[in-house]
Amino acid sequence: MADLRLTKIDESLRALHYHLTEDDSCYFLYDYTSRQGFSYSATNQLISNIKKSPLTKGTPQWRYKMRDIRRCSADLARALPEGVVEQLTFVPIPPSKAREHAEYDDRMRQVCDGIAAGADVRELVYQMASTRASHENDERVTVEELLEVYAIDEALCDPAPSAIAIIDDVITAGTHFRAMADTLRAKFPEAQIIGLFIARRVYPDDEDGPV
């Protein structure tokens, strides 16, 4: 089986993820090509499958969502260096819908749970209200809007994490990572914080990016 490596978003890649700064340590596995369908690439298919709505449960689509959630867990587990999992607290980025919403999708929690048995997985940040889903809406949610609805789950804070891995499926501008990192850093100022993503958003070769 070929090696699977995480790539760091450095200064050569950061322009597409403009909410990141040089102090942020974010890593990804694959490229997800924006404005293309699920058939464009294997990664586009993967991301499309795991983003299937919870309302598809009980339909033939559901098994593809579950299969590819497991694949994302396995791919992250393969890519993380030996011994790192035991040092990290995995914190999934909350979905756009609040917990009581019918379309609340805990896919990233499931991805985290599947990385390794006994891994420290905590939903330290939750959303107090639903927001618009960025992948379904041209009007993207802002960092400021997320900071208003993000809250720390105080019941999960003990013991305080020393190293936090924020987990999400796709990093686009870095909006959710920025809001998550700022929220977590305010609560745990001594913790090291990194971001781990299944994919980063890129554009087709004939496009330069957002306009």
Q: What's the SSE blueprint?
A:
Layout: E1 7-8, E2 25-33, H1 42-50, H2 62-79, E3 89-92, H3 107-113, E4 120-121, E5 125-127, H4 143-149, E6 150-152, E7 163-171, H5 175-187, E8 192-202
Describe the structure.
With 211 residues, the protein is α/β, with parallel strands linked by helices. The chain has one domain (7-202): Rossmann fold. Helix content is 26%, strand content 20%. The chain has helices at residues 42-50, 62-79, 107-113, 143-149, 175-187; strands spanning 7-8, 25-33, 89-92, 120-121, 125-127, 150-152, 163-171, 192-202. The strands form two sheets. A six-stranded mixed sheet has the order 1-2-8-7-3-4, with helices on both faces. 32% of the residues are buried.
Number of helices: 5
Number of domains: 1
Instruction: Determine the fraction of residues in helical runs and give it as a percent range.
Output: 25-40%
Q: Main beta sheet, described?
A: 6 strands, mixed
CATH structural fold name: Rossmann fold
Instruction: Supply the helix-strand structural class.
Output: alpha/beta
H/E order of the elements?
Answer: EEHHEHEEHEEHE
Q: Round the Cα radius of gyration to an integer and report it.
A: 16 Å
Q: Count every beta strand, where a strand is a DSSP E run of 2 or more residues.
A: 8
Overall shape: it is globular
How many angstroms does the end-to-end distance come to?
40 Å
Would you identify the CATH architecture? 3-Layer(aba) Sandwich
Q: Approximately how much beta-strand content do the residues carry?
A: 15-25%
Instruction: State the name of the first-level CATH class.
Output: Alpha Beta
Whole-number average pLDDT?
Answer: 93
Point out poorly predicted stretches: none
Strands in their spatial order, largest beta sheet: 1-2-8-7-3-4
